[in-house]
Amino acid sequence: MTRLHSVLLASVLLLTSAQQALADAIDGDWCRVDGGRMSIRGPLITTPGGHQITGHYSRHAFSYTIPLSEPSAGATVSMRLVNPETINLWIGAQTSDETAMETWNRCTPISRL
């Protein structure tokens, strides 16, 4: 195996293992069918309205208070990781109400080639 092949293989393995590590956590970029997007990085979130704020983070759950300039301002958003590709989200205290639940999926990476 040439040095170039070794470097390429190591790079692929490193990238694959990093993505798998994130897959078991709520961290990442999330998309909704209607085009909504949000991004979670530890306790930091970029909300669907584009605000960067701090919320309450655990590996498989996240919550925050909706900023004043966004719809439903002041309400609490609660999220729970369902599987590596899906989260369920509730606005307000209706975490047992499946009709009020939103489903978000990990955003599909966009190639920058």
Describe the overall structure.
The chain is 19% helix and 37% strand. It is of the alpha+beta class and 113 residues long. It has one domain (26-106): Lipocalin. The longest helix has 21 residues, at 3-23. The model is unreliable at 5-22 (pLDDT under 50).
State the total count of DSSP E strands.
Answer: 9
Rg from alpha-carbon coordinates: 17 Å
**Proportion in helices:** 10-25%
- Alpha-beta classification: alpha+beta
- Termini, distance in Å? 26 Å
Please, what is the average pLDDT? 82
Structurally, the number of domains stands at 1
CATH architecture: Beta Barrel
Q: How would you describe the shape?
A: globular
- The order of strands across the largest sheet is 4-3-2-1-9-8-7-6-5
Considering the chains and any ligands shown, give keywords for the structure.
single chain; 9-stranded antiparallel beta sheet; Lipocalin; alpha+beta; 37% strand; 113 residues
